Amino acid sequence: MHDSLRSLDLNLLVTLDALLAELNVTRAAERLHLAQPTVSVQLARLRDALGDPLLLPGARGMRPTARALALRGPLSQALEALRLAIAAERPFDPSQAQLTWRVAATDYTEATILRPALGPLRAAAPGTRLAIVDMNPPTLVRKAEQGELDLAFHIAIDAPPGLRQRPLFADRYVLAGRADHPRLRRRPTLKQFCALEHVIVSPDGGGFSGPTDDALAKQGLARNVVLSVPRFSGLAAMLVDSDLVAMLPQRLVAGNPALAVVEAPLAVPGFEMLMLWPERVHRDPAHQWLREHLGRGVSIALR
To answer: Are 252 and 195 found together in one domain?
Structure first.
């Protein structure tokens, strides 16, 4: 099969389709906007390649051979399928879409990006599904390229190379504790800050040091970290039920009446959040819509 395909080019197949439809070289040439001699030459090449005369002289034009009759339907269907395959894509209609998107996210990006976007997403694209999977940076690029992931959210400083990216927002760290925490009625001094009992989020598990500790170490100081948890979810409840405090991203605690939020007595570097996706979906209209929808939702939430 492959050898027979190599002996033909697409133009010859288009010519054959026109000849089988018109059963006349002159009309086929007009249909193809070609000169009649050109179509005659192409017919000769088709006969040689297929080992069949295909069209025979008749009283009224030309008569198709049995081989030509067998080719007519499948050839027409194949060319139409090819035309549809390479035709310009129609605009994406989210209201009619039946898709599943797989997004890698941490609990922080679930809370700050995906949760606020979920209601509008369901309203705009009710037939779609969203699968949120755990963020695993070492496998991110491979899974995205192999089609296991469509989108991911990651901080810029550690973003893996090889993926398209779009900046979403910058966030910074603030000091948070329960609303009536006696040490958070005002901004604590650096000495008071270090003496508080701190919780730290360690995504890798079990760590007791982070950006705040790096900033303190530059001043020859250390804080009192008494608890390490693997994720942000559930941390607010721990703060509310204790005198523990935590340095948390501002977007995560903004507007929470159960928490007191104050500025820390030292500068701690914040971070920039990116949206990441593989090249394979960069020009896909559905994926473009999803990226714009999520990006627009973040912009609205920032107002």
So the answer is: yes
